[in-house]
Amino acid sequence: MSAFIRAGRAAHILVGLFLPLCVVLADNAMARINAAKPPLSAVTSPAIANSPAALEPPARFFSINQVLADHDRRAGFSGAPHFASFNRQGLAGDQAPPPPTAQGDEPFGLVTFRAPEGLLWAKWRGVEAEIDKEAGTLEQCRRDAGTCPSPAALRFLAMAEETRSKAGREKLDTANRMVNAAIRYTSDLAQHGVADLWSAPLATFASGRGDCEDYAIAKYVLLRESGVAAKDLRLLLVRDTSIRQDHAVLAVREDGRWLILDNRRAVVPESSEVRHLMPLFALDHQGVRLFAAPYEARIPHESEIDLAPATSENTGASAGRSGLPLFL
Fold first, then answer.
1. What is the pLDDT of residue 167?
2. In the chain, what is the straight-line distance between the N-terminal and C-terminal CA atoms, in Å?
3. Contact at 8 Å (CB) between 157 and 175?
4. Is residue 46 located within the same domain as residue 183?
5. How many Cα neighbours within 13 Å face the side chain of 251?
6. What whole-number distance in Å separates Cα of residue 113 and Cα of residue 104?
């Protein structure tokens, strides 16, 4: 090993002597090249030099993160923009991000944008397909209970009828209470032998078991059957910072306020009152969206910042080995 060490030291000495000589030779060569170059006016005709294309500054391109970071600096924010879907497990205490300075019209006062295609889109589309299939069963049982092939469908329709008879927060309290009572919490691993499996409501009611996303999906469909508009429902994938676990809940807009239906709680609070949930994704009839903190309504003047189309980068969230969070 000593021979290798001595050889290495000798190599370092030779490199140390050779690099300054290279720098001097390179500087001299560049000086000669620059001296030999003709002035710009000698190689550019007046017509070309004064053309609009020649007078325009070169195009400047920005990534979306650069644009938002520059906007934050101008608006007085510190650091990079804080997206709710960032992996914050490395932060002390796994705390949720600070409240935004402006209010969005989505749950928790945030805004959303379309998530990139991926496994989460595939899972949600699969559940929507199963929900559509079960809709046919529900319609058959609604027309003629005597020929209904599914006791779970009859039970679900009875719950929908009771929920439909309520209004306002009482409707949401009823849906939350009945679904929480109808399903016994069971992990997907214990029930299905896989880490994460999402089920449509009739399949969940037939087994009487499910985990958090099964509760949320059942409430989502139950409230749709009870007359709540699709635009007022969001199935939320969140991070419960109090216990450091991924979770799923349902958000419902009632009288301009978003309320949270959770299988772990009997009460239905407003999202502004729920401090321990950090939203990651919103799923609804329009697909999958990511949450982000809203920015100031003021748009920078075009002289302050140049915007150009850019590809999305760094879109993702904390995920397990499957590429998706595991929701409990």
1. 94
2. 55
3. no
4. no
5. 30
6. 12
Q: Is 139 inside a domain boundary?
A: yes
Total domain count for the chain?
Answer: 2
The contacts of residue 245 (CB under 8 Å, 6+ apart) are 239, 328
- What is the token pair recorded at 38? 């003709």
Residue 25: Cβ within 10 Å count: 10
Q: How far apart are CA 150 and CA 128, in angstroms?
A: 19
Residue 48 half-sphere exposure, CB side, CA atoms within 13 Å? 6
Q: How many CB atoms lie under 10 A from the CB of residue 84?
A: 23
In the numeric block, which tokens belong to residue 27?
Answer: 């500087």
- d(CA 172, CA 285) in angstroms, rounded, equals 19
- Give the C-alpha separation, 179 to 202, whole Å: 12
43 and 74 in a single domain? The answer is no
Q: Which residue is listed with tokens 């923009």? A: 81
CATH number of the domain that residue 235 is part of: 3.10.620.30
147 DSSP 8-state letter: G
Taking Cα atoms as reference points, which of 208, 206, 219, 210 lies closest to residue 176? Answer: 219
Cβ atoms < 10 Å from Cβ of 313: 10
pTM over 0.85: no
- The residue range of the domain holding 36 is 2-53
How sure is the predictor about 104, in pLDDT bands with cuts at 50, 70 and 90? Answer: confident
Q: Are 69 and 171 within one domain?
A: yes
**113 in a domain, yes or no?**
yes
Helix (H) or strand (E) holding 134: helix 119-143
| Pair 41, 114 in one domain | no
pLDDT interval class at 313 (50, 70, 90): very low
Q: What is the DSSP letter of 270?
A: B
**To the nearest whole number, what is the mean pLDDT of the chain?**
74
- Residue 291: beta bridge partners? 112
Q: How far apart are CA 204 and CA 67, in angstroms?
A: 45
Report CA torsion sign: 77, 80, 81, 82. negative
